[in-house]
Amino acid sequence: MARAGDLRQLLKRTGFRRLFAARLTSQAADGVFQASLVSYVLFSPERATSAGAIAASLAIVVLPFSVIGPFAGIVLDRVSRQRVLVVCALTRAVLLSLLVMLIAAGHTGADFYAAALAVVSVNRFVLAALSAGLPMVVPTGRLVTANALSTTSGTLATLLGAGIGSGLRGLIGGDDAAVATVAALAGLVYLAAAGTATRAGRYEFGPLTPTPGQGLVREAGQVAVELAAGAAHLWQRRPARYALATLTGSRASYGLTSVMAVLLYRNYFTGVDGGLGGLALVVTAGGVGTVTAAVVTPRVTRRISKQTWISLVLLAAGIIEIALCLPFSSLLLIVGSLPIGFAAQASKICVDTIVQEETDDSYRGRAFALYDLLFNVAYVAAAALAAFALPVTGRSPALVVVAGLGYVVCGLLYLRARPSHESDLDLTTSRPVAPPVATAGTRPQARLD
Questions:
Q1: Is the dihedral of CA 384, 34, 147, 83 positive or negative?
Q2: I need a labelling partner for 252 at 20 to 30 A (CA). Which of 89, 322, 342, 381 fits?
Q3: Which residues contact 183 (CB under 8 A, 6 or more apart)?
Q4: Average pLDDT over residues 227-255
């Protein structure tokens, strides 16, 4: 998603191809799973959907981000990240088999949400492992391009999976049995993801110096200390600290409008403009913006700093949010989703790269666990707040203005902070060289610098 020559160089690297394949299969399975979940909970004709119901669902989803995230960081800095990918994919396949039975039986109680919560919780390990493993297989100078290709292709794989799941549901009917079939397909794709991850060597994705386990109780007792050490490590890297704060704030704005969009297409727009089909067009437009960001961002950041680019895209997103969402037109919402999706992906590509470049490998798992925690808690907490504040139709001009101003404020504050750490921003020259790239089946050696 940059110059063709850069992509060819990346794809020549065996380690990158293996990590890339693991990401694509895993996130495609996520898409199929999400399609079954959304169809069953939000767009089932047998069930009413209110802002309060959405808020309750999202409040449950917060738990894995708050509880599992810190443990994920400790695990990823201590054990093989390749093994984490394999075990997590197998675990989710087993959990999906349970969900299939619950959906087929029409359950929407605590048992259903507990199983869905478990699938989401396991995903915390997977996404953090994929990000933490990337610098092990890609040189520092190519991380922007690698992030653009990896995260954007992963998003597209999720969208493709969601499209396949939604299409299958439409072909065989919209009842619970049809949704259960889609969930079963997700379980099969998770099995494929496990098979893909087994092709890599045990320590091909790191960590550089894995620490032997010391028992569950002792390890659990060290979580708070080690997580604090990871947070301190990030705090000492000002570019990473500012970038994470900015992305967290902008993600909250994204969360505010997510629930609004669901309610608008569920309860406000009618006919061809409404329903799951209309919402799918919004998601598709956002996906086009995501792809465009992946094409543009590596090229732009060769000419201006990543920090300047983050500020510019967030400012633009805020203006577009207010201009195109306030009329509450389905067509304008679809059009606006493209540049807002562009801004979200462009800023995330840059922040991913800044955090990767600024953190040492011994802290990288914890850094991305904290990153994942902030990124997702901000989204879900803002979405839950919006659900309580919104009417059942989802139409709220005040919320649109608040979300738009959130983007603008984040962009302006980051632009203002940028000059104070300008000397820290030339990451390709100020940071150490990339760690040695591991070969299949070998354990990377620790750096001596």
A1: positive
A2: 89
A3: 33, 36, 96, 99, 100, 103
A4: 89
